[in-house]
Write a structure and sequence with these properties.
Layout lengths: L1 E6 L3 E8 L2 E9 L10 H14 L9 E6 L2 E3 L4 E4 L12 H9 L3 E5 H12 L8 E6 L3 E7 L2 E2 L31 H5 L4 H5 L18 H9 L3 H25 L3 E5 L6 H15 L8 E4 L6 H20 L1
Helix pairs in contact: 3-9, 6-7, 7-8
The chain binds zinc ion.
Zinc ion binds next to helix 4.
């Protein structure tokens, strides 16, 4: 059994995983603006509560895996860079914390990479050797698997910055420093900012919403709101461009989609697939599209897989 923690921007998810199956999970608020280190003791308490819930002891756990939303050095097991939230965790020694708190070896990884590892080991990309994952969450996270290896790269950023590939050179400034990133054009946090500058917004039902994003656009469009329908068309162009960029970069067999936007996968999947199929240069055929079964837990499953490996290494080192 492994302990897994996924530090999201809104919630911290804690899970116990055995053989690729989630035994129990809980969630606590992240309060990410106040940093990550302040949430470690509550996270550890959640782990102990979960263990009690399933009637297990810490001594039955093999390792711990932590997923983080930022650039992660999985070898040194620390965060190297992150936008705005959780900045206090940069350079933090997670190994030492896990040893002192739980006496367990630890694995640390970027959350999108963790999700792809989880999906490739146990989920919708099981058995695949070449895949890209795009998570349409608050932002847009990505990861790539080539020839069975998840890409990490010289500076730990290979594959994970697909949300920061531009889809509009005249587009919105992004928190990453670039301009017109698909995340700054078409992610949940960015949609209201960009939409409010477009002509016709004031007449749309969306103008009355205070906090809105993916779901509101899709619903308003279905309700016949003309502005929302045009906005949705525009978003599909950006999302498709983002996927085409990944297909051209990483040559995947499978395009795996995840995140809150995929609640509308029935509506979106055929349209994304059609547009990507028409635009991507793939003379060998067309990549298969798949949707993560349970986006809430793929990173936890991936971190359990990595914790297993970390424990094996730690055992071999004695
Ligand atoms: Zn960006």
């Amino acid at each position: 059994m492994n302990v897994t923690i996924d530090f999201g921007g809104t919630n911290i998810k804690v899970g116990l995983v055995q053989d690729g199956k989630l035994l129990a999970k809980s969630s606590i608020p992240a309060w990410s603006d106040s940093g990550l280190l302040a949430r470690l003791s509550d996270s550890a308490r959640s782990v102990r509560e979960l263990l009690a819930e399933v009637g297990a002891e810490l001594s039955q756990c093999v390792g711990i895996g932590i997923a983080l939303p930022g650039i992660v050095d999985s070898r040194r097991k620390t965060l190297t860079s992150i936008n705005e939230k959780y900045t206090d965790a940069i350079g933090f020694d997670f190994s030492r914390w896990a040893k002192e708190e739980f006496g367990l070896p630890i694995a640390v990884e970027n959350d999108a990479r963790a999700a792809l590892i989880g999906e490739a080991a146990y989920g919708a990309a099981q058995g695949e050797k070449d895949a890209v994952l795009i998570i349409f969450g608050t932002g847009i996270g990505t990861a790539a698997l080539m020839d069975g290896q998840v890409l990490r790269g010289r500076h730990h950023q290979a594959g994970i910055l697909g949300g920061h590939l531009s889809t509009d050179l005249e587009g919105e400034p992004c928190a990453c420093g670039n301009v017109g990133c698909v995340e700054a054009q078409a992610s949940h946090w960015a949609i209201p900012i960009r939409a409010s500058k477009l002509p016709g917004f004031a007449n749309s039902s969306l103008a009355n919403d205070r906090e809105w994003g993916y779901e509101a656009v899709i619903k308003a469009s279905a309700d016949g709101d003309v502005f929302a329908s045009e906005l949705l068309e525009d978003l599909i162009r950006h999302w498709s461009a983002g996927i085409v960029n990944l297909v051209h970069a990483y040559d995947p067999e499978v395009v795996l989609l995840s995140g809150g936007l995929m609640k509308s996968s029935e509506l979106l999947l055929p349209r994304l697939q059609e547009r990507v199929g028409a635009l991507a240069w793939t003379p060998w055929g067309k990549p298969r599209f798949a949707v993560a079964e349970d986006p809430e837990i793929s990173a936890l499953l991936g971190m359990s897989f990595m914790a297993e490996q970390a424990a094996a290494v730690s055992g071999a080192e004695g």
